[in-house]
Each structure stands twice: as C-alpha cells, then as structure tokens.
User: Which sequence fits this backbone?
C-alpha cells in the first residue's frame, strides 16, 4: 500500500515510547507475550527499560491471554523481573463458549492475531506460574491481595479475615505430572497442578463446573 512503510513502527522501540508516559502505579501488561513489542526484544534480550519499570513505581501484570509464551516468560523471569499481578486476559478471541443461535459459521474473529486454541483460565494461569518456578505464596498474592490493591480496593478485598465479606476461592493443590502448552507450541511438564473446587461469593457457594474450564493433560 502506498505510504505504508513510512508508518511502520519498530516493535523494539514501543516500550521506551510508552514507559516515559506512565506514572507510578500505572500498569505494564503482557510481559510474557510471544508478539513483538513486549519485554523481550526481537534479538531475544530483555529490553533495558523492562528492568527499570518496577524501580519507577510501575506495576507489571502477566495478562496471560492466548499470546502467553513459556519461552518469553523464562527469559523475563531469569532477568529478575517478576510481575505483581496475574490477569487471565480471557475474552472473546481466546475463550471458547457455545455460540448463540444465529452466529455465522465463519466470522472475521477467526483470523484475529490474539486468537488461540489452547484453553486456559485464571487458575490454570496460576499453575503456569508455578511451573515457571514462582512460589505458591507469591502466585496467590498475584491473584488476590496484589490485584485488589492495584484496583484500589483497600477495604480488605483479597484477604481472609473475621468480619470480611466471604469472597473465597477454594483450589485443589495436586501433585503428579501434567503437560502444559502455549499457543506457539512450547510444552512444559508441571509436577504441581491447581484446580478450582468451588468459590464463595458473599457467602454463597458456587461449584467449579463451567464447561469452558481447561482439562489437564496427564504427562
């Protein structure tokens, strides 16, 4: 297309353009993305500004999504960069639900760059963090109290205490061997698996039986 080349952006320059616009408490997401423009440059090295982000008071959210990459995650974590929170980033491009009546057999979203075939959830994303070597206590904080603080919920949300509203997720902490995969074809073997059992919302129980939940693959 005429004039297209002059508008192309070098993905390795995106982070430096963005970080200078942010203030302490703002969030950088998708550090483990397989797509260009994230924390890892095209040559496989971690962008220098990624290391400075936390020192500047910026927060980092995994933003798991279909673009999550075990390969990129290892590179970033080995550089000593550990995210504060764990967003699942589940949305219409990567979460497969029964299509409502009248949905066409083919639609533009089928070719969306963030479309993925590997099913996941917040809890399976927590398992991925464990498989990458993060300790359970940090992974739990990523999905609870750290997320609550990031959202400005300072009234005890994300914690368990007497008198607090009973919003509780109960997980099974299993031992064995399971194969985990991402959407670029990388597989890792996990020896610890978190599975949702049930949750309490304001004291009301809801069992984990949603059909969209991923099914663990035994190694």
Assistant:
């Amino acid at each position: 297309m005429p004039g297209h080349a002059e508008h192309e952006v070098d993905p390795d320059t995106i982070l430096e353009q963005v970080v200078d616009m942010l203030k302490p408490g703002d969030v950088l997401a998708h550090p483990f993305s397989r797509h260009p423009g994230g924390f890892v440059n095209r040559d496989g090295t971690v962008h220098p500004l990624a290391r400075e982000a936390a020192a500047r008071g910026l927060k980092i959210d995994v933003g798991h999504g279909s673009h999550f990459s075990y390969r990129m995650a290892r590179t970033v974590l080995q550089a000593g960069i550990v995210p504060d929170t764990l967003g699942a980033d589940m949305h219409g491009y990567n979460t497969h639900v029964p299509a409502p009546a009248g949905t066409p057999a083919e639609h533009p979203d089928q070719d969306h760059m963030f479309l993925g075939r590997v099913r996941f959830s917040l809890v399976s994303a927590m398992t991925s963090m464990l498989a990458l070597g993060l300790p359970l206590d940090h992974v739990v904080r990523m999905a609870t109290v750290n997320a609550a603080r990031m959202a400005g919920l300072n009234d005890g949300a994300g914690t368990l205490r007497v008198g607090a509203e009973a919003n509780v997720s109960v997980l099974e902490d299993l031992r064995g061997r399971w194969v985990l995969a991402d959407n670029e074809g990388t597989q890792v073997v996990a020896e610890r698996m978190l599975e949702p059992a049930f949750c309490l919302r304001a004291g009301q129980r809801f069992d984990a039986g949603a059909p969209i939940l991923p099914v663990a693959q035994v190694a």
Remarks:
- The two ends are 48 Å apart (CA to CA).
- The mean pLDDT is 86.
- Helices lie at 14-19, 48-52, 70-78, 122-131, 136-143, 145-150.
